[in-house]
Amino acid sequence: MILVHPVVSNWALLPLRNNCDVFKVFTKSKSLFLCHLVLISSRSINRVLVLHLKRFRYTPTFQLEKIHDPVDLQRELVVSSGQDGACYSLISTINHIGTTARSGHYICDGVDPDVGPVDLTDRWFTYNDTVVTQTSGVNVCNQRQRSSYILFYRRQPED
Hints:
Blueprint: E1 2-4, E2 13-15, H1 19-27, E3 48-52, E4 56-58, E5 64-66, E6 76-80, E7 85-97, E8 105-111, E9 123-128, E10 131-136, H2 137-143, E11 148-155
Antiparallel strand pairs: 1-2, 3-11, 4-5, 6-7, 7-8, 7-11, 8-9, 9-10
């Protein structure tokens, strides 16, 4: 069997022997392919950093299950590159609230958009459909350790 994988540059063909091979390709936890553009170094660090946490997996019997492992959410991240380093601040999370991969509810937490990048009030909001409640970044980092799966960080301005 030959599988055309859309992530592969130029729609390369992957030689796969059976459906198990296909399953293994699409459920690997690591990045399988890099676009040739990724190999080009950039002279600047991105303003926004998005981290996607893999919260679902397939069991050996091909059942989808949710991963409940806690992740220590960091309010600040320091990222270094060949030229520079940058400090990023957590500004938003997307969370799956539910016990299984097949059911649950999605909510979002975000820093108050009306505050500046260096704000001591730590005012955040939780967006749950039409209900918006005030919270704090400390609460978000403590309460979303098992449910967050997309984290948005913004680069802090250089002094």
